[in-house]
Write a structure and sequence with these properties.
The complex is a heterodimer. Chain A contains one helix and eleven strands. Chain A is mainly β. The radius of gyration of chain A is 19 Å and the shape is globular. Chain B has a single domain (4-295), classed as Purple Acid Phosphatase, chain A, domain 2, CATH 3.60.21.10. In chain B, strand 4, helix 4 and strand 5 form a beta-alpha-beta unit. The chains are: A mainly beta, B alpha/beta.
Chain lengths: 122, 297
Amino acid sequence: MQLHRRMLLRAAAAIGVVALGGRVAVQAQPKPRVIPIVARKFTYDPQQLTLKLNEPVIFRLTTLDVVMGFSVPDFGVRATIIPGQTTEVAMTPTKAGEFTFLCDVFCGSGHEDMDGTMRVVG
Amino acid sequence: MKPESLSRRDFLRLAGLGGAVLVSGCASTMGAQAAAGGDDFYFVQLSDCHWGFEGAAINPDAKGTLKRAVAAVNALPRQPDFVMFTGDLTHTTDDPRERRKRMTEFREIASALKVKDVRFMPGEHDASLDNGKAFKEFFGETHYTFNHKGVHFIVIDNVSDPMAAIGDEQLQWLRADLEKQPKSARIVVFTHRPLFDLYPQWDWATRDGAQAIALLQAHENVTVFYGHIHQENHFMTGSIAHHSAKGLMFALPVAASQPKRLPIPWDASVPYKGLGYRAVEAEDKPVKYLITEWPVG
C-alpha cells in the first residue's frame, strides 16, 4: 500500500499533478524557451548563445539560402536545416561551460568558418 | 567504440602483432629498407594539396608546394610502387567551372610524377558541393578497391555526401567486399575524413564511420590511412590503427588546442613547417607498415 502510494506520487510529480486538499490541479510544465537561429552562408544569427544549466530549450532553425547543419557535438544534438522549412530541435544543457556549435553539412567556400559559441551558465 | 590514444609503447607492441610502426629516417635509407623483403613494397601518400588556395600569410608558395612535393617524390632513390592522394586535391570553390579548372591544373602537376600508378580519392573540398560529379569526370570512381602484392586496398568515400556520411549503399558495398576477404587478409583502407570521432567540434569525424569500423573490425589486419586534419595523428579503435597524414598547403592545429580551427600561419624562419608527405612500407611477415614522414622544405 505504502509502495503504491509512493509510486502514485512519483507519477504525479512526473506529469505535474498536485493534490490540493482533496482537489487535484494539473500544472503545466514550463515551456522550453524557444531560441530562433537563422543560418545563411556562412554564419548563424545569433552566433553567441547563452543558456542556463538544465534549462530546456528548443532551437528553431531556418536557413536563408542552402541546406545547412546545426550541430552541438558536446550535447549530441544536431539537425539538418532545409531552405523553406523550419526545423526544431530540443536540448537541455546538462553541463556548464563554453561549447561550439557548427554547420556539419558542407555548404560552400566559407563552410569551415561557420560556427558559433554556446555559453551554459550555472 | 572509444578510440584510445596510441602511445609509442603501443607502436612497439604492435610491431610484433601486426599493427603499424612509425620509423623516422632519411631518403637514403628508404630504398634499402624497401628492397630488403621479398614481396614487400612501399607506397607514398600525398594529402590535402588544396590546389587553388590563396593566402600569403598561410602559404606564400601556394603555387609551388605541390610541385616541390612531386619533385621530392621523383627524387626518392627507389620509386614507390604507387602514389595515393587522399583527398582535397583542390581547394573548394562555389564555381563549378573554377573547380574543373583547378582539377585540370592539379592533374597536370600530378602527371609529372615518375610513378605512373597514381591513385586519387576526393576530399570534401573536391566533392561535397556537387556529390563528386567533377571529381568523377577527372579522376574516376570515388570509392573502389584494388589489390597489390598481397594487400587488399579499400578506398572509402566519406565526402561526396555533404553530410559527411559514407551512406548505406556504400556500407553495403563495403560489407560485400569484406565478406570476400579472409579474416587474416592484409587490408589497408584509405579515407579522407577520420572514420572515428576524432573531434566533431571541428568536423573531424564521419557521421556513420562507426558502422564502417564495425565491419572492418571483423578482420585481423586492418590499417587506415587518411587526411583531412593536415597533421599526423595516430589512433587505435580496437585492433585498427588509424594514421592521418600531413597536408601540402597548410597545417592545422591540434584538436582542441585553440578555440578555432584556423590554419597555422606560415613561419618564415621554418618555411613549409608542418607540411609533408609519407612513405609507407608494407611488410608481410609479420604484417606491419613502416611509416616514414618527409618534409617538403
